TrEMBL record:
Subcellular localization, as worded in the UniProt entry: Membrane
Main location: membrane
Descriptive protein name: Sec-independent translocase
Organism: Kitasatospora kazusensis
Pfam annotation, one family: TatA_B_E
Amino acid sequence: MFAGIGPLDVVTLVILAVVIFGPDKLPKLIQDTMGFIRKVRTFADSAKEDIRSELGPEFQDFEFQDLHPKTFVRKQLLGGNEDPLGFKEIRDGLDFRSVLNDEPAPSASVGLTKPAGPVPATGGPALHEGERPPFDPDAT
C-alpha cells in the first residue's frame, strides 16, 4: 500500500506534522489516530466473524482474500490440485543450464516417442526423394 513512500518522504511528513500541529499536540494526535485505527480493525474483524458465523460451519475456513479477482480466477481455473494442467512434467524435462552453456541437452523423455528414421534439423520427419513437404493453408 505504501510501497511508493521513501525515507525522504517520511522525514518530510514528520517535519510537516511538527510544524503544523506543534511538538506539544503531536503525541496526543498520534495517540488518537492509533486508537481510531484499532477501533476500525476491531470493527472489521468482528464483521468478518459475524459473516463467517452467518454462513455456517462449512465456511469457517473462508478467507475474504479469496474474493479478489486474481485469486478467485486462479483457484477456479487451477482448482485445489497442485499441477492440474500437467506442466510439472514438461518443466522438469527442460534443462535451461545446458541451453545457456551451449551444451547439448540430455535426452529426457517427456512422454514423446522417437520418430522412425533420421530427423532433419527442422525437427520434422525426413522426406523421401520427390515427396512434397506438408502444406497447411491455415498456418500461413
